[in-house]
Every structure is written in structure tokens, then in C-alpha cells.
Amino acid sequence: MARIFHMTTREGDGLANSVIAAQEAAGHETRVVDLTQVDPEGDYSVLLEEIFEADSVQVW
């Protein structure tokens, strides 16, 4: 089982949502962060941890 981390940059991205759903259905551990909902002045340490712990990082 792969650990896949997704960062979305657009709300309602149909392609990203369908890929994420397919990966979840295949049994992969998926994490998703919607960057449109993140405070630009916020703490990005959690984001960095997720990037380095993932087997694959995908940005949409």
C-alpha cells in the first residue's frame, strides 16, 4: 500500500477528485490538503511532514 499525498490548488477539480477516489478504492493511504483553505501566514510544518513521509506527492 502506497502513501500518497495530494495538494489541491483549485476548488472542485474533477480530475483530481476522480484520481484520489480511484487511489483510495485501490487501498492506498491518501492524504489531501486543500491549499485554497490554508492561511498564507500559517504554519507549514505539518505540510512539510506529510510531503517527506509520502511515497508520492501530487499537486493539482
Question: How do you describe this structure in short?
Answer:
The chain has 60 residues and is an alpha/beta fold.
List its traits.
alpha/beta; 60 residues; 3 strands
Question: How would you describe this structure to a colleague?
Answer:
α1 (14-25) links the parallel β1 and β2 (29-34). The model has no long low-confidence stretch (mean pLDDT 93). This protein is flat. Strands 2-1-3 form a three-stranded parallel beta sheet, with helices on both faces. The chain has two helices and three strands, in the order βαβαβ. It has helices spanning 14-25, 45-53; strands spanning 3-8, 29-34, 56-59. It starts with a strand and ends with a strand. It has one domain. It has 60 residues and is of the alpha/beta class.
Amino- and carboxy-terminal Cα gap: 22 Å
Strand order in the largest sheet? 2-1-3
> How many structural domains can be distinguished in the coordinates?
1
Rg on CA atoms, Å: 12 Å
| Structural shape | flat
Most strands sheet = 3 strands, parallel
Count of β-strands: 3
Proportion of residues in β-strands: 25-35%
Runs in which pLDDT lies below 50 for 5 or more consecutive residues are none
Helix fraction by DSSP (H/I, runs of at least 4)? 25-40%
Q: Report the mean per-residue pLDDT as an integer.
A: 93
Q: Determine the structural class based on helices, strands and strand pairing.
A: alpha/beta
Could you give the order of the helices and strands? EHEHE
Q: Counting H and I runs of at least 4 residues, what is the number of helices? A: 2
